[in-house]
Amino acid sequence: MSIFNFFRSPKKTSAEQAKERLQIVMAHARVGRSTGPDFLPMLQQELLAVIAKYVDLDQNKVEVKLDKGEDCSTLEVNIELPVPGEGTAKVVPVKPVAKPEARPEAKPGEPAKAAAKPDDKKEAKADDKKAEAKADVKPEAKMGAAGRA
Amino acid sequence: MGTIITVTSGKGGVGKTTTSAAFSTALALRGFKTCVIDFDVGLRNLDLIMGCERRVVFDFINVINGEARLHQALIKDKRVDNLFILPTSQTRDKDALTREGVEKVLEELRKEFDYIVCDSPAGIEKGSLMALYFADHAVVVTNPEVSSVRDSDRILGMLASRSRRAELRMEPVIQHLLLTRYDPERVERGEMLKVDDVLEILAIPLLGVIPESQAVLRASNVGMPVTLDEKSNAGLAYLDACARFLGEEVEHRFTKAEKKGLFGRLLRRSA
């Protein structure tokens, strides 16, 4: 505003801090709401189970995110694959699941890692440290009806 | 068929009752036949704010229970034509509100009134859910303050999932943000959330900004809706908000700090 600002410390004003805190706390609150029947944890579990069939993966290195845009939503799945050599990696493209309502009961506690260990080396692309699968999901009418992104 | 407008907020003390009184008065001043209902069973206050506390004989709950007819409970405002108040019970609790009972009364009011303004209690329990259930429009009253903004967001979630319109998969409840107790000087000093900050966070259309004003307390002291204090910024801001609600384009006032001269600064007078 004026020359006085030059001398002022760059500390955020309390109003700016208020805004930031609100944005953080409400982003969390909305995750459950905006995705409707909160299917993300279940989706994550099932994706993990499928991927674990082919790749030995660390469950903590998987991130599933749903972002809502103006006219389409993005389902982002980030999977960090293990260092080559330790396990064999077969990267499978992940197809997005877009129908939250047709979902069977999930057992949240169930470990997602399947018993099958990959030994098929033909298709192994071990040079990829990190594979990223991004997919656009056209919003279903129901998902759109949640309204608030 | 009348339109139901619910004035809600989640958090208490942000100005729901003040807004219900001021907004319904503004609608009536525009010539619309308007009824304002107190949904805060057990903590009746709208009658005091409207200045009709000594004229309450029957109330909303009596009508729901069939102990009185609607017209026996409706109180006609003495200052503004077309304005009626339906007070609530001071002795009962929220369980007295049944969905069927509320629906019956609202349907009867719809036939007769252009607008039915529901003054919601605070919280997200039965009383406030009942007040928002039948809403066509919701005026979400928010203060530029963290707890109020968060609670408003919660109420927006309720409107999107627990209202009748949501349950029947009809057109959603039309949401309006009314930012009250706004102090432009504190905003300029970086001590208060800006209008734009709150809009960015809540992402619903802005109906109006009501400046923090001493006129609000003065009006409630004497039982007069602040809209009738034509000299006050708050009253004018409510009239503007009402005009916007009716589809007029009115520029927002009172959102910038007034430039004060030396004299003004020394006297520190506020509206």
Describe the structure.
The complex is a heterodimer of chains A (149) and B (271). By secondary structure, chain A is α+β, with helices and mostly antiparallel strands. Chain A is 30% helix and 15% strand. Chain A is built from four helices and three strands, in the order αααβββα. In chain A, a hairpin with a 4-residue loop joins β1 and β2. The longest helix of chain A has 21 residues. Chain A is elongated and about 60 Å long. The relative contact order of chain A is 0.20. Chain B is of the alpha/beta class and 271 residues long. Helix content of chain B is 41%, strand content 16%. Chain B is built from 13 helices and eight strands. In chain B, strands 3-4-2-5-1-6-7-8 form an eight-stranded mixed β-sheet, with helices on both faces. In chain B, a hairpin with a 6-residue loop joins β3 and β4. Chain B is globular, with a radius of gyration of 18 Å. Chains A and B meet through α2 of A and α7 and α10 of B.
Compact description:
The complex is a heterodimer of chains A (149) and B (271). Chain A has 149 residues and is of the alpha+beta class.
Q: Which key phrases capture this entry?
A:
heterodimer; A: 149 residues; alpha+beta; three-stranded antiparallel sheet; 4 helices; 3 strands; 30% helix; 15% strand; B: 271 residues; eight-stranded mixed sheet
Order of secondary-structure elements of chain B = EHEHHHEEHEHEHHEHHEHHH
Major sheet attributes of chain A: 3 strands, antiparallel
Strand order of the largest sheet of chain B: 3-4-2-5-1-6-7-8
The SSE string of chain A, one letter per element, is HHHEEEH
If you average the pLDDT of chain A, what whole number results? 61
What oligomeric arrangement do these chains adopt?
Answer: heterodimer
- Number of helices in the DSSP assignment of chain B: 13
Strand percentage of chain B: 15-25%
Number of strands of chain A: 3
Spans of chain A of at least 5 consecutive residues whose pLDDT stays below 50 are 99-149
Please mark out the parts of chain B with pLDDT under 50 across 5 or more consecutive residues, or reply none: none
